[in-house]
Amino acid sequence: xxxxxxxxxxxxxxxxxxxxxxxxxxxxxxxxxxxxxxxxxxxxxxxxxxxxxxxxxxxxxxxxxxxxxxxxxxxxxxxxxxxxxxxxxxxxxxxxxxxxxxxxxxxxxxxxxxxxxxxxxxxxxxxxxxxxxxxxxxxxxxxxxxxxxxxxxxxxxxxxxxxxxxxxxxxxxxxxxxxxxxxxxxxxxxxxxxxxxxxxxxxxxxxxxxxxxxxxxxxxxxxxxxxxxxxxxxxxxxxxxxxxxxxxxxxxxxxxxxxxxxxxxxxxxxxxxxxxxxxxxxxxxxxxxxxxxxxxxxxxxxxxxxxxxxxxxxxxxxxxxxxxxxxxxxxxxxxxxxxxxxxxxxxxxxxxxxxxxxxxxxxxxxxxxxxxxxxxxxxxxxxxxxxxxxxxxxxxxxxxxxxxxxxxxxxxxxxxxxxxxxxxxxxxxxx
Length: 431
Description:
It comes from Rotaria magnacalcarata. TPR repeats lie at residues 37-70, 79-112, 121-154, 247-280, 289-322. It is a single chain. The chain folds into 4 domains: 1-112, Serine Threonine Protein Phosphatase 5, Tetratricopeptide repeat (Alpha Horseshoe), CATH 1.25.40.10; 113-218, Serine Threonine Protein Phosphatase 5, Tetratricopeptide repeat (Alpha Horseshoe), CATH 1.25.40; 240-321, Tetratricopeptide repeat domain (Serine Threonine Protein Phosphatase 5, Tetratricopeptide repeat, Alpha Horseshoe); 326-431, Tetratricopeptide repeat domain (Serine Threonine Protein Phosphatase 5, Tetratricopeptide repeat), CATH 1.25.40. The chain is built from 21 helices and no strands. It has helices at residues 2-7, 11-28, 34-49, 53-70, 76-91, 95-112, 118-133, 137-154, 162-175, 179-194, 201-217, 221-238, 244-259, 263-280, 286-301, 305-319, 327-343, 347-364, 370-385, 389-406, 412-429. Helix 3 (34-49) packs antiparallel against helix 4 (53-70) and helix 7 runs antiparallel to helix 8 (137-154). It is elongated.
């Protein structure tokens, strides 16, 4: 019953029934019984669908521990568990472990299945998705094409399972910027699904999202919006209204409307997404940080700098705590916040964030890097606003030194800095 609810995308109800089944089995069976492994595996599948990756991983590892104890190392149920663990690691961004477990799963499938067995096509598809996430696009494409070749040998040309592989290949062509090819494969995937008696709305949502992404890359924004709306409609047919996938649809529409200069609809879609995400995600989740930054960017574009700053600071609070957010990106974000303070004439705060960005860049960049030049130039303007003449001149000297090395004496930026320095000397030294 639990997996029936899972198939219907009602994951909370699925968990209720699976937990009841687990309680019964744990009270009536030995702790390492194979039937428990099956329930642990199902619990992991449902938690993965709910993006509870750490919990999903713990259940899959419990299932694997039992299965490894009682089954042969090459048993297909062990291969299935390796694959499930692999997909969780992929979702967590741990691609090296994801690839390792997926290759173990593939090895078992290759040894236990015939050359063109359907399960091999699934394994090739999964390993292809990991290489895609690692940006090994050509390798991913080769695995997807292997999967498609096998599937065509045992499936009719309009079988719904072909849609998954067509979609995957479309995604690779999009990543490689082969946009016409990407659209061809996405359209094949869409046509196959629409001919089904019971279309997979979740897959149709992903296919339409892919077509929206291609049209966005081609700057066909109205077409991208149309497909994005279709994607959201399909998602709403298979997910609760407050599901994270629905929030993703709102985010995508928000970003497209921003690109088209339609800022009020963009704000509305971002706000809808954030309402869902704040209810569904931990307060320190990086996806929330991205959502806050996105809506901050819209407020920045309409010059509502106070609102932009509010959301940027929310985003920063999350990003500073994340091990996945690197120092270079943090420095760029400090620079973005400093600009908001500059526009709001909060010069002391602006300077503070520039100094934080500068400290990071000085530790990771070469001394003549253009970002250092830009930062020193910006800081001179802030010191000037604060009437700190000595610091203004000092930072201008540093900026000039970098400009000489990085750009040369004849570069317009170097000449501009030289003129500014002469102006400072006349106004603050010679007086």
